[in-house]
From TrEMBL:
GO molecular-function terms, A-Z: cis-stilbene-oxide hydrolase activity
Record protein name field: Epoxide hydrolase
SUPFAM superfamilies reported for this sequence: alpha/beta-Hydrolases
An example Gene Ontology CC term for this record: endoplasmic reticulum membrane
A biological-process GO annotation: epoxide metabolic process
UniProt family annotation: Belongs to the peptidase S33 family.
Lineage start: Eukaryota, Metazoa, Ecdysozoa, Arthropoda, Hexapoda
């Protein structure tokens, strides 16, 4: 072997070893200031908690009815196409007709007001939240639990879950007191007045919200953006988080990507079982499916205000944009069904409740900005993804979730993973779709979290 070849091997080995060592280094925890996000003067923040009721004016409802009644004719779908090009306009017409003629907002408004709701200012943002305490806890210990939704969801996703969590479960010696906020810029929560409020910064906002409400230690749970935000909270504030449960645990790092690629050569190195292997490999299939579903993400991460104009002006467009996600994100095979499978798990009224929250608050543009504020160099440079979570953690994995990750990758981030569950049914909107299954899993996970730390009992 020549000297040049030997030297090249030595240099190559040193570079590989250096790269691996750098990848394995834990970044420092960033020091995040309690930035003032609101439009008002910081010296005038009203920190009082105020009761809140959803009260939409007749003028807003009349305007909606006018827009639905005078919408332009929908473009017919191509022959033999269901939802492969996006939502089929035959189905959309049926939903819009239901919205215009049968959906009764005043009845739904009463439904949405069934739980106690409040607003309070945190870092200049007037945040809306639901706060439900168990009515008859008996001898059960009451544990605070923060629930966070994502996009294109809202607090509406949790309405069937809340009663299950706030009622003592058989054989359990604890029950939950739940706090369910609307994310800043979503629904009835105020949006940031200046750039920079990404998922990491939102974790600070929600930590401060819980402090404002008097909770020093608590459990957290979320999916979609909510799952990412609770992951950041557990990373940055382990002294306050008793445990974290997510139905979208996701590790995004160079090392996790390297492991994923390595598994494509020999899957048993990475995957937990054959079923999981079929969801991850071949990588070309997985990435093509993600590309098929993630066009909206690129748009919202780059031009949220542009796409927001059309969606905020047209209820038909807003419904199409949001409801398409409830087809393919609940089950990707539903795109091949004429009715999109929507009524297999939801009702039109339930789905339109969620659409209405975006419509009556005009919040679709500000909700979309979370993508542009989170997928950028400033957010990545904080290094939060590379900091391990040490608090007791749990991951609920639903088979139709957009992306699946095996234990070999999850443990890279979650160093104290006490519970992982694999369901036979369910997709991205677990709280909305399968509230009983998710509630049971949260109870099981928290029981294990309490057992893992005697100070929690």
């Amino acid at each position: 072997m020549g000297v040049v070849v030997k030297l090249s091997l030595v240099v190559g080995t040193i570079l590989i070893a250096y790269t691996i060592s750098k990848l394995c280094q834990t970044p420092p925890v960033p020091k995040l200031e309690a930035t003032w996000w609101g439009p008002r003067d910081a010296s005038k923040e009203d920190t009082s908690i105020k009761p809140f009721k959803i009260q939409v004016s007749d003028a807003v409802l009349q305007d909606l009815q006018h827009r639905l009644s005078n919408a332009r004719t929908l473009t017919p779908p191509l022959e033999g196409v269901q939802h492969q090009y996006g939502i089929n306009t035959k189905l959309l017409k049926n939903i819009l007709d239901y919205w215009r003629t049968k959906y009764n907002w005043r009845e739904r408004e009463k439904f949405l007001n069934q739980f106690p709701q409040y607003t309070v200012s945190v870092q200049g943002l007037r945040l809306h939240y639901i706060h439900v305490k168990p009515t008859n806890p008996g001898k059960a210990k009451v544990l605070p639990l923060l629930l966070l939704h994502g996009w294109p969801g809202s607090v509406r996703e949790f309405y069937d879950l809340i009663p299950l969590l706030t009622k003592p479960a058989s054989g359990r010696d604890f029950v939950f007191e739940v706090i369910v906020p609307s994310l800043p810029g979503y629904g009835f929560s105020e949006a940031a007045a200046r750039p920079g409020l990404g998922a990491v910064e939102m974790s600070v906002v929600f930590k401060n919200l819980m402090n404002r409400l008097g909770f020093e230690k608590y459990y957290i749970q979320g999916g979609d953006w909510g799952g990412i935000i609770v992951q950041h909270m557990a990373t940055l504030f382990p002294e306050q988080i008793l445990g974290v449960h997510a139905n979208m645990c996701f590790v995004n790092s160079v090392l996790s990507t390297a492991k994923l690629i390595l598994g494509s050569v020999y899957p048993p190195l990475i995957v937990d079982n054959k079923e999981q292997e079929s969801k991850l490999y071949p990588l070309s299939t997985m990435f093509s499916n993600l590309l098929l579903e993630m066009g909206y993400m690129h748009l919202q991460a780059t031009k949220p205000d542009t796409v927001g104009v059309g969606l905020n002006d047209s209820p038909s467009g807003l419904a199409a944009y949001i409801l398409e996600k409830f087809i393919t994100w609940t089950n990707e095979e539903w795109k091949n069904l004429e009715d999109g499978g929507l009524t297999k798990k939801f009702s039109y009224a339930d789905l339109l409740d969620n659409v209405m929250i975006y419509w009556v608050t005009g919040s679709i543009t500000t909700s979309a900005r979370l993508y542009s504020e989170s997928f950028n160099i400033a957010q990545l440079s904080l290094g939060v993804e590379g900091i391990p979570i040490t608090v007791p953690s749990a991951c609920a994995r639903f088979p139709n979730e957009l992306a699946q990750q095996p234990m070999a990758i999850l443990k890279e981030k979650y160093h104290n993973l006490v519970h992982v569950s694999d369901f036979k049914d369910g997709g991205h909107f677990a709280a909305f779709e399968l509230p009983k299954a998710l509630a049971d899993d949260i109870f099981i996970a928290v029981e294990k979290m309490r057992s893992s730390n005697s100070t929690q009992k």
